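Weekly structure sync, notes
Attendees: PL (lead), two postdocs, one rotation student
Agenda item 3: pending single-chain targets
PL asked that the sequence for the first pending target be pasted directly into the notes so everyone works from the same version. It is reproduced below exactly as submitted, 378 residues in total.
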Amino acid sequence: MNAPEPAGGSRPAPIRSAIIGTGGIAHAHAQAIAALGDRMRLVAVSDIDEDRAAAFAASVGVERTYPSATALLAAGGVDLVHICTPPQTHAALAIEAMRAGVPALVEKPTALSLAEVDEIARVESETGVPTLTVFQHRFGAAVRHLRRMIADGELGRALVATCETLWYRTDDYFAVPWRGRWEVEGGGPTMGHGIHQFDLLLAVLGPWAEVSAIAARQSRPTDTEDVSAALVTFESGAVATVVNSLVSPRESSRLRFDFEFATVEVEHVYGYTTGDWTLTPAPGHEELSARWAAAPPAEETSSHRDQFAAIADALASGEHPTVAIDDARRTLEFAAATYASAFLRTPIAAGAIADDDPFMTSMSGGRVPWAPVKEVAR
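Predicted structure, written out during the meeting:
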């Protein structure tokens, strides 16, 4: 993998991006690319629905459209592909891009199973070309400031945390044929919705050690869960609760971290600003309020733009961008452990899902305790 050559002078040439899959999330990618100005440029799109690809390309001012990822990659002239297709295609498309020498930036989840993630990692090792995962909430200004304070030891040891993704989806949401299927989405809110919040939890607190969880289908017409809840211990000794829901009318995404010297928390729905975060110092540590107030102001909501900017900087400097495949695997392993614990009714330790364990190849592990309700996919 080579960084783009400068067009002239010392300024790096724009990262030439292409979007594979022009459904809803592709618009967020296109907007984020456009917001980076001359640091990243959208040059091509592909979709198996050629009319949709053409309409999308026209809306974002791109001339090059292709009927497949294969055709797009064969045409060349691309430094980074954004994979915005349904989850069951992510691993195969990422591998195809890496074998073509093009880094892939994949929407969450990176893949449907740990086995697929391990295959991506194997091909990355073989080709030297990375696959990255979109976990944009890691890159907001407030989180970067929080992680610096933690690294500097200003907040003391992490003790307790709460992570909640309480969202609401109607029955009609699951009428889309590919939604609510283990074999297509990998799971319910644990895989497709709450994963952003608990990825951020893991990014702040570090490696997790053990998960005890429950999962349920409370009311939605889905084969997957619509609610899960977990108790988590971390290698550091911190403990946390993680709740993921699609049946909560007042939507909220909430993270709270209780450190020795302060509580730091945020509540938002689909993205945060610096103003959404608060710090409450413990008695005797009031100076931390002023330190927190030094966080860079960010009125814009945490978004794809923050992560794309970090990727552009890394590629331009020849560094390995984030979120890398090993980091994404830890988050997916947490999801797999949540399902395994819920369906097997036992705690699951980090690293316990391995080899021929059925939860390596499917998040359901073939152990879902309720009957499917979705029609057989055709």
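Discussion points:
- The longest helix spans residues 325-344.
- The longest strand covers residues 247-259.
Action: rotation student to compare against the earlier draft before next sync.
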